[in-house]
Amino acid sequence: xFKIAIVSAAGGVGRSTLTASLATLLAQRGISVxxxxxxxxxxxxTLLGSDEVSLGGLLPDFLTRKAFGMxxxxxSNEVACLPFGRSNEASLVTFEQHLRxxxxxxxxxxxxxxxxxxxxxxxxxxxLPSIYARQAMVAADLVLAVLAPDVRSLALLPAVEVxxxxxxxxxxxxxxxxxxxxxxxxxxxxxxxxxxSLQLRLSPHPIHRDEAIPRAVANQANLQSLSPDSLVxxxxxxxxxxxxxxxxxxxxxxxxx
Length: 257
Ligand SMILES: Nc1ncnc2c1ncn2[C@@H]1O[C@H](COP(=O)(O)OP(=O)(O)O)[C@@H](O)[C@H]1O
Ligand SMILES: [Mg+2]
Description:
It contains twelve helices and eight strands. By secondary structure, it is of the alpha/beta class. The chain starts with a strand and ends in a 12-residue tail after the last helix.
């Protein structure tokens, strides 16, 4: 199983949106995928089409000593999703205490999941710094950091690098810009600046700002079927193909292009 942690140092930049979209696209290409919500916000299953916010999930399973992965759901697009589940302040304190004492808890739990060869695991996380993001980065084969087209994301770039080097020395994240409005010169300049500093570590497929995304969420619909010809559907396909051909190509000896 190839494991990707989706992280960012700034909030609201599209981590969950990208996790859900990439998971749906992987399933559409016939690749087994599990989307794991490691964010107490617990919204990933909703983005993947659930009618209601999940009560069950990995946190309630942990608290009741059930096996990890028991509460995974499969949606109509063949995407398996393990929600975080409902939490409260006390349950989060208990869980976070456990995560602090066992930095490899998530990694070990994932190792027990029986998934077909060639499958993908996408882990959604809260923004850095976060004990959840840290566990996901420890477990991941690849860290995909999401950047917004603003100076804040640029200024927070070192925070992502430092966070990853602390839990996985020698590893470097790869980056994707989300929410680009190419008609705005400042954003295009910023993208060019990032390209020259990050080079091959920045996806050549920025994801444009597109109303098709919130519209799909509001309609609980799959973006690819609701707006297959939208710019953003094209961008997301480009990003996935780039990942499968490059950063995520070398696992289980499989080729995806
Ligand atoms: N490319 C995009 N175009 C338009 N809206 C977007 C795009 N990406 C994300 N959004 C919207 O931005 C908001 C934050 O996205 P979300 O994925 O929840 O961010 P995060 O998980 O990083 O907090 C959501 O309302 C989402 O629909
Ligand atoms: Mg999120």
